[in-house]
Design goal:
By secondary structure, this protein is mostly beta strands. It has one domain. It contains one helix and 16 strands. The protein has a twelve-stranded antiparallel β-barrel. A two-stranded antiparallel ribbon has the order 2-3. The chain has a two-stranded antiparallel ribbon with strand order 8-9. 21% of the residues are buried.
C-alpha cells in the first residue's frame, strides 16, 4: 500500500517539476483557503452530527491539460485531518469536455481505520493504534461533459476495489443540481447556489436509503473560500 502512495506522490512531484520548467506564461498555479459549515462528502455529513465545521485549502499546478496538486481539510469526525494528492489530464473538444484523474486520500490523524467494504457494500472499520490509520485509499475518476451537463464515475483502486460512485450534474448559471449514487447502497440529490465567487450554498438530501444506514435529514452547507495570489 505504501508503494502506490509513493508512486502517486512521485508523479505529482514530477508534474510539478515539469510545470516549473515550462514557460511561466503557459503554466498556471492556483491556491485557495476556505471554511464550510460541515464536511459534506457525496451526500454524507462526515462530521459528528452537530455541525462540525471544516477548514480546507488547496494548491494546484496545471499546464497543457495536465494538472496535479494537493487538497487538505479538517471536519471528518473519524478521519480527522485529511490530505489528498491528485494527478490528472483534461480537455475540451467543442462543447464536449473530458477529464481523467487519480486520487490518493490520506488521514494521518484518523481515529479509525477503513479496512474496505464487506459483501454488502458497507465500510468496515477498526480502532486505530500507532501503526494503523485511514490511509492509502485511492480512486480513479473519469468525467465527461457536454455543455452544462456532466457525468463522473469513481472507482476504488486500493482497499476500495469493490466501491464505485456515479454522479450526474447539470448547471444553470449560478445554480446546479447533482444526483449521486453509491453502488447499490444510497442515492442523494444536491442543489447548489453560488452567491458569488467566494460564497456558496449546498442543500443535500438522501433520496434512496437502501439499508437505512444513512441520515435522511436535509444537509445544508455554507462554504466560503478565497483565492491566494
Amino acid at each position: 500500500m505504501k508503494i502506490s502512495k509513493s508512486i502517486l506522490a512521485g508523479a505529482v512531484a514530477a508534474s510539478v517539476a515539469l510545470v516549473g520548467m515550462a514557460p511561466v506564461a503557459q503554466a498556471e498555479v492556483s491556491a485557495s483557503v476556505g471554511v464550510a459549515s460541515s464536511y459534506l462528502w457525496r451526500g454524507i455529513d462526515l462530521g459528528d452530527g452537530y455541525g462540525t465545521p471544516a477548514v480546507f485549502g488547496d494548491l494546484g499546478f496545471s499546464e497543457g491539460g495536465f494538472y496535479a496538486g494537493t487538497w487538505v481539510s479538517s471536519g471528518d469526525a473519524n478521519g480527522g485531518t485529511e490530505y489528498d494528492l491528485y494527478l490528472g489530464y483534461g480537455g475540451e473538444a467543442g462543447d464536449f469536455s473530458y477529464d481523467v484523474s487519480l486520487w490518493s486520500y490520506q488521514y494521518p490523524t484518523a481515529s479509525t481505520r477503513y479496512l474496505g467494504f464487506n459483501s454488502e457494500g458497507e465500510i468496515v472499520v477498526s480502532p486505530s493504534n500507532d501503526e494503523s490509520n485511514i490511509g492509502d485509499l485511492m480512486e480513479a475518476v473519469v468525467s465527461l461533459g457536454y455543455g452544462p451537463v456532466s457525468l463522473s464515475y469513481y472507482h476504488g483502486i486500493q482497499d476500495l476495489e469493490d466501491y464505485y460512485y456515479v454522479n450526474a450534474g447539470v448547471s444553470f448559471g449560478d445554480f446546479g443540481v447533482n444526483l449521486g449514487a453509491h453502488e447499490d447502497d444510497m442515492m442523494h440529490i444536491d442543489f447548489s447556489y453560488a452567491y458569488n465567487d467566494n460564497l456558496s450554498f449546498t442543500f443535500s438530501q438522501v433520496v434512496d436509503n437502501v439499508d437505512g444506514d444513512y441520515d435522511d435529514d436535509l444537509n445544508v452547507v455554507v462554504s466560503y473560500s478565497i483565492p491566494i495570489e
